[in-house]
């Protein structure tokens, strides 16, 4: 379900009228966000009810009471309506490296950030609930898309590591480090899915992952703890 609508719009939801200080462009952007949210909400509901593969764009358009062309204008691919946190997911590891504390290694920053995400039971880390996870694993399209997002996340991490270390363009080290770190995140993400589908609650999963994540990262510590 999309979260792109954002807080604090200046339009009154009750009246739908423009306040004196609000420019017309602000109204248009607000309307676009509302339409996008509406389409995403109906799409998610249908995906969960019927399955991703069985749901058509025409059904989504009918449910949202918009034209099919409007749906594709906001969401070029059907999977974009299901995996709407994908930009945050892809950029997350690289952003953690770029925004790490002074003197903190990328390894330490990524470990800290993941443990914080587990404690918060963050949906982007994998705590998406059984219905949503089942929708993904039962869909060949979404499963393939998720694998591609993991790959993109690793590539973005490699670029951030190369920048952080001042590596030359041909240096394979940042790519190798990103593959190791991305691999741990991929395994832990899949572990959350596995436990969710096994019927464990989010607090139970978080308790399990806290220990498993520490052990997983510890495997990489000899090679990467002091990297950069």
Automatic annotation (TrEMBL):
The keyword Transcription regulation applies. The lineage of its organism: Bacteria, Bacillati, Actinomycetota, Actinomycetes, Kitasatosporales. It comes from Streptomyces nondiastaticus. Residues 33-93 form the HTH tetR-type domain. Pfam families: TetR_C_14 (PF17754), TetR_N (PF00440). InterPro entries: Homeodomain-like_sf (IPR009057), HTH-type_TetR-like_transc_reg (IPR050109), HTH_TetR (IPR001647), MftR_C (IPR041347). The keyword DNA-binding applies. Residues 1-15 have a biased composition (Polar residues). This is TetR/AcrR family transcriptional regulator. Residues 56-75 bind DNA. PROSITE patterns: HTH_TETR_2 (PS50977). Keywords: DNA-binding, Transcription, Transcription regulation. Transmembrane segments: none annotated. Residues 1-34 are annotated as: Disordered.
């Amino acid at each position: 379900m999309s979260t792109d609508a954002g807080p604090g719009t200046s339009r009154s939801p009750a009246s739908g009228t423009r306040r004196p200080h609000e420019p017309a462009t602000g109204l248009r952007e607000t309307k676009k966000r509302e339409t996008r949210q509406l389409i995403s909400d109906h799409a998610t509901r249908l995906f969960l009810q019927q399955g991703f593969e069985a749901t058509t764009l025409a059904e989504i358009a009918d449910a949202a009471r918009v034209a099919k062309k409007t749906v594709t204008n906001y969401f070029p691919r059907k999977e974009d309506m299901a995996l709407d946190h994908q930009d945050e997911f892809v950029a997350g590891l690289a952003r953690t490296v770029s925004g790490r504390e002074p003197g903190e290694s990328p390894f330490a920053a990524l470990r800290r950030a993941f443990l914080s995400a587990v404690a918060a039971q963050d949906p982007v880390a994998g705590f998406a609930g059984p219905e949503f996870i089942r929708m993904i694993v039962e869909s060949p399209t979404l499963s393939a898309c998720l694998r591609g997002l993991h790959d993109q996340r690793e590539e973005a991490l490699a670029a951030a590591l190369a920048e952080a270390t001042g590596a030359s363009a041909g240096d394979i080290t940042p790519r190798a480090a990103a593959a190791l770190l991305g691999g741990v995140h991929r395994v832990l993400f899949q572990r959350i899915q596995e436990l969710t589908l096994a019927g464990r609650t989010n607090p139970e999963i978080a308790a399990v992952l806290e220990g498993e994540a520490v052990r997983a990262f510890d495997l990489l510590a000899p090679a990467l703890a002091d990297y950069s």
